[in-house]
User: Fold these one by one.
Assistant:
Number 1:
Amino acid sequence: MPEPHYRQPLLRTPFHERMRAFSQVDSFIPWSGYSTVDVFSTVEQEYFAIRNGASLYDLTPMVKYRVTGADATRFLDRLVTRSIAKLAVGRVAYALWCDDGGLLIDDGTVFRMAEQEYRLCTGERQLDWLLDSSVGFDVRIEEITADIAALALQGPCSCWILKAIGLEGIETLAPFAHRGFRLPQQLAAAGPSGAATMMVSRTGFTGDLGYELWVDPADAERLWDALMEAGRVRLVRPVGSRALNIARLEAGFLLPNVDFVSSAHTLRNGSARSPLELGLGWCVDFGKGHFTGRRALLEEQGGTPRRRLAGLDVEGTKPAHNALVYADRSGRREIGSVSSAAWSPTCKRNIALAMLDAPHFMTGRQVWTEIYLNRELTWERRMVRALGRTAILRTGAAPRHSPGRLLS
Amino acid sequence: MSASRYDCIVIGAGHNGLTCAAYLARAGRRVLVLEAAEAPGGAAATHEFAPGFRVSSCAHLLHLMPGWLLGELGLAGHGLRMAAERMPTLALSAAGALQIPPYPDSAARDLGEADARAFREYAAMMGRLARALRPILEAVPPRLGSRAWRDRLTLLGLGARLRLLGRSDMRELLRIAGMCVQDLLDEHFENPLLKGALAFDAVLGTNLGPRSPGTVFTLLYRLAAGGGSAGSLAQPVGGLGALTEALARAASSAGAELRCDAPVARMIVTEDSAAGVILESGERLQAKCVVSSADPRTTFLRLLGPEHLDAGFVRRITHLRGQGMTAKLHLALDRMPRFAALTALAPTGRLVIAPSLQAVERAFNDAKYGRFSAAPLLEVIVPTAVDPGLAPAGRHVLSAVVQYAPHGVAGGWEGQREQFLDTILQTLEAHAPGLRESVCAAELLTPQDIESRFRISGGHWHHAELALDQFFMVRPVAGAAQYRAPVRGLFLCGAGCHPGGGVMGLAGHHAARRILAEAA
């Protein structure tokens, strides 16, 4: 008999037992009602697996919806800011959705599975908003989070490993494409699900070569074992959220509740952010017809921007965690704050994302970050110079194995 | 595609649509009014319900349309005549009739001395509050947080009017505005019949009972809308249809074009702007703006389409409360009905059957749980008592507003209609013995019939429940409360807008003002 929910408030993913066996520091954190790993051994080891070898990250808690019906395309086009009609079957798009005020509710990925079938993946549950958005549209929306086990295989060796387990033709899978692959004998034959194929998408949150694998939960452990076995010679390792967080910051991907707070959750006037403020204007297609928030975003676009998320290169080696940002070294004019910061081992730079008031978000502009350092319980305050970088997320650029991209 | 291009297409030739069209045409706009039915009128029409018998289809008394509006549009010149004005209200009971004295000054006659004195004070106080609230109804709602001088001036003006009430009346307004009408009436009166009749006015047309919070507000609204005087009840010659016919003539003579039998299928939206309509016949008609007098749900969800709106706005529209609770009964009678309580009086007034607060609340209890009232409340008039032309010589028509009849009655109206008709006739028979025998024909319109016949989603007379949360700056919903839809070129002018339903015409008037101000 399963344990009652009050005894085990966090659900376990199909990879949980495997991850627990691998975990050296027993560091688990909650994500969307599931228990996931923060760190397995050390953040550095895991980070370098992502950048130099291959990494496994359990994506199962990612909330997934199946959207089907005659109006599925029209419904999604009204929901998100990008054009979904232009998305071909077999393709994936990063997408945003806003409230009426053009303020970001959440981001996610839209997979076009068939002419009238989509999969929408998001960090948080959205059923309420999806149902509200479906009034007047012939669509069916089902949450299928628990029906699918998802695993991200990221890193320069990821393609090699998939070939090694027998996914024929995986090297032909283009960025932002997905396809069903025939499962090799040892995975398929014994599978209780009887599934002969596995869906693979060339997507990820690391900005590097990488794939996301979507399988029946019954096949999850067998897949994990096969990947770990095949990847042994290529330094494959399971990684936790902390290592992934450095990789995504290098790639310029935003993290909900860190770099922005969903407008569905903000209580204070002015704390929600629009896609334009977050530098995601390239994701907004004003020409595709109406979508929720379009009128507000058009008005915002017509005015002068008040603030914008900017990438910063901070001097020194100490990450500017939670730093306030000033226009001057004396710290008299506060112009924003840092939402994400890390030392980037690959770029050998001290990088950060900061929400800055106009006009300080301009590229090449010099600003000052106020960094507090704890030196054996003695706090030191430093004003450190930082320079604004170019747009944090390159428009439509496919993530590919190109460390140079991270440096630009 | 039609070559003709209009400045404005008005959807619906009810009193609000026609009022709006008349004002727009008078300002020089090329206006086309499209009506789905074969004649103008909407819910303010007169129809023949049995051979030779005609009756006001939905609303049957005129008491909310301001005199200045009738005057400005010159409706008397367009043939509008009153068969009766300042009609008295008579509360009926087994024991006799009680004349509810006209507000605010006349002395009460049929009450005991204590209640008569209390009534004078109550009526004076309610009259003062209603007069102070009246400017709210006359105003185009200001936008919240707006910096436009017009919005600020409106708010300032309304505040000043309330301030003029003085400290004690302002306190009383604050105290009672959110109260239930039963508590207020219990504070003032003893007589159950008086309390029943006053509570009836507070809940008429709403989904509320006398113990529901906010019913003092609905009562004040009714008093304010009626100009603070309940004595202004009137009945046009030829029924309410005569009013809309006069309005149609006023609009036509100002240059507006009217097309009946022209139901709109949907609106044309080009580049995020309403640019015309497509009729059910397939005909396309273009215009610079579209003005809808249909209810908000029909306008936004059916005619415009949610795909042109933001999801949060659509949520507000779907949450709009607008379940019809009121039915309409029409009887063709072969003789003048005799009401036992009215031995000395011919039924030339408005007869109210709501014997006590308890009776009103019990009638509401049924509706609360999805049933029609087992002992319904009635507002009865005998239009032929003052306007014999509505029926063949010597015969009569009885028209009754019946409360409560939930639009979504449990089990559906099919199969219960006969039972409900029988229930109402029993109630009438109790007050007018012999009435049943004299019935030659009967027509009962449930809210579902009202929905299909007048194309009002939910069958609610006010298009959307009149309550504090759906009033003034948030009527029908935030984002459309200034007669302007989120889509450019689309305006609202129906009862779903401020100041609401009833045959008032102010929504149409205000909408026209807003449209003209926008273009100027």
Number 2:
Amino acid sequence: MKKGLSSVNLAALTFGFAFLYLPIVLLVIYSFNDSQLVTVWGGFSTRWYVALLHNEQLLEAAWVTVRLGLISATLATVLGTLAAVTLTRFVRFPGRTLFSGMVYAPLVMPEVITGLSLLLLFVAIGLDRGFLTLTLAHVTFSMCFVAVVVQSRLITFDRSLEEAALDLGCPPFKTFFVITLPIILPAIVSGWMLAFTLSIDDLVISQFTTGPSATTLPMRIYSSVRLGVKPEINAVCTIMIAIVTIGVIAASIATKRAESERVKAERTAAAGR
Amino acid sequence: MSDAPRPAGVSPWGRRLVIAVPYLWLLVFFLAPFFIVLKISFSDTVIALPPYEPVLDIAKGWQGVTEWWAGLDAENYGILFEDELYVASYLSSLRIATISTLLTLLIAYPMAYGMARAPKGWRPMLLMAVILPFWTSLLIRVYAWIGILSPEGLLNAFLLGTGIISEPLYIMNTETAVFIGIVYSYLPFMVLPLYASLEKLDDTLLEAAADLGSPPWKAFWQITVPLSLPGVIAGCFLVFIPAVGEFVIPDLLGGSETLMIGKTLYNEFFMNRDWPVSSAIAVLLLLVLVLPIAIYNNVQVREVEAKK
Amino acid sequence: MTPYASPSLPRLDDPMALKPAQKALGPIRRSFAPWLDPSAVPLIRFENVVKRFGDFTAVDNVSIDIHQREFFALLGPSGCGKTTLMRMLAGFEEPTSGRITLAGQDLVGVPPYRRPVNMMFQSYALFPHMSVEQNIAFGLKQDKLPKAEIEARVKEMLRLVKLETFAARKPHQLSGGQRQRVALARSLAKRPKVLLLDEPLGALDKKLREETQFELMDLQMELGLTFLIVTHDQEEAMTVADRIAVMNHGKLVQVATPGEIYEQPSCRYVAGFIGDINLFEAEVTASSGGAVTLKSEEVGAAFSAAGEAAPGASVALAVRPEKVRISIDPPPADATNVLKGEVWDIAYLGDWTVFLVKAENSEKIVRVSRANVMRSEAQPIAWDDKVHVWFAPDAGVLLTS
């Protein structure tokens, strides 16, 4: 937009982003606070990070969480991609309305409902609660997010590329793997990352569907913080924030670099004819 | 070009397989559980494993089925309507969710508007800045507010220290804290669809309005706002629906006075160990939300069709 | 299509004009007309093909025969069904009813990846994640040809389209014209029986488009292939095609050579769609021995034309603008079909001038076009001049529909 930023707009942006980031920044700062109290600055210290390393419970929970995230994200990506292909490519099949309803509903469904219903399912079929049920639950709610991400990419995908492949003798399933999949890969990767993040951040559904053998990191954090602010928790949170930040920034830079390379290549080609 | 997007030459069995896998998964793990919740909402609590009865014993054949059916009753729903706690929780949740949605809209709109008007080079960065908190755990972000809002927290320290107030504010464990928590956590969900809508706005429309004699503020209300309505609606649904059933925020930031149905359900389940009543709560909550969810679903599908 | 477009005659001093003429005078082109041979078996047959999408009929009972080594054009405005027809041949749509046969084989139910037909897409559809080489080799790899043969064929194709040094580049590193050549090479790599071209030149600028049209014609003759081109650009169809099928609203209107389409349109639609035309609505007053007399209310004059028609019939006399003569001085005494009028508008196009003349005592505008064969005229015609226009009896065609 040519008008640029008025002072009102600038103020809105500043206030908005300050509101968004202030709590996180404060959290990070106080993870380095030597003192236990939030309001007293005891000096810069990394003792809480050191304490973390000796906290068996937290480390165990972190390991469960990472494993859970990797497995559920991968499964969710496969299922979500299949769902996206179904929604964009197969226009008419019996029960399509129901299917699309089931794909979009979990996006807004309150977690207490999803969690409760999944737990009751596991009890009804006699499945012991633990890592398996946890994984099944995570796959279920994150596959819908993957489906939405992949679907929005598939819609803008140039169908004539698939037709060209068919025309040249490539059967449909091979076409999907050789032509479509490589081109929509960035969307599938973002879907995976989204599913991974949702899994490692999840609390409520995990509470309902897990068993004594599998406690996730958010669950540990939650049980700690119900009793107030804990500096060790600040440290864990800071680490998680750092990982996410680095991931998002790295992805951002990678996309930007690929984009500018492509623009440069197109410009040289056009000039050279 | 071609009307029917049917992919040419796909074998019918291949097609069925691709559809069936996610379909079956969702049927089993998403839809079927709702029916189980429904069934259990008609059951009674017992001290047993599982902690409800009747339990359908298929081995007993048809007699088992009739016994099971006879054991169902709507007692729990009666409890829900009689006991003030539950009705109050539902109404309070709707009230809090509605107010929070409006507050979020109020804060998100100027932000999204500012982002849409920012120089093109800034926008990817601004987008990333909005998305970053979204990738951070809700739990962490809500926890961060505990340190700020509690009586010994940073906010009070700041206000007391600068002499703006003489007594600490008791925001923590009140509804106000819940409002702040919901608005804060769901802000990205409102900003993103709003931004998407506002960014698509054609600048030349505003230029045409100016050319025809409309002052900027009028053009804003008569052109910008109506055209951004799809984004507003999407954002409101994305905030309102999950906010109604929100648990973490009222649990950590609200006190025992703050009633929200998500918290009530959770407590009913984990503290009172009353599965049937929790199920009844869930069923009613679902009924309350079914209309907004259906509308939201409809809007999503229509948007997807339009893009094709 | 510009309002004043007219078919360009080859200019005598233009080297480009000579190039196709040299090839065109060769033995194949001069006597190439298999559609006239009753014993010739067509390569492609569309028999009563109908395609419906719900309530909408995209292709309405179309029957066409296309012969081997023809450069055949499907011409019509957007929405006329030409693209749908082509896609049914490629296999991306199935006809609702009717038959399509290729070399005698019925194509019903045969998926696109098993048809000996290849298509060059309007958007080129180059695979962005593959290099030029890999794009061209793609079809060959599907046939599981030996590696050495694939390499040799790819090299041959690159040479054919003059892109040898671009083999390792990716599509986004190529210009529009280069991408188009890769698309062409890729579609020819498998030496298909039929090559389908879906509005292939739309994205190119005028100069490049003309060059490529001639290149396509040369290529087609050199390789001896059958080309089917779909286009809405009538100049393009006239330039490249051996025969043109004009379509409108899903129906086939006329199938003929460019010359026949231009000089013997079968109806008002074709007459108006290709080039510019003057249509004089008239009634036949007399008819004998291949000559008719017409009376036109429009211009309040009588015409004599060559043709057959029953007296009393309502016809349109279609006369091309370049067949009409114009001058300020009265025409020679033996001139027929003379009208007097006033110059209403003039378009100077450099090589041609188009005059719009308002006929005396009527609202009819007669369109006259004239080549500027002299660099300057002693008495140029200007706006509002009183002029005479006339044309020969055989200059026009009688149209009944």
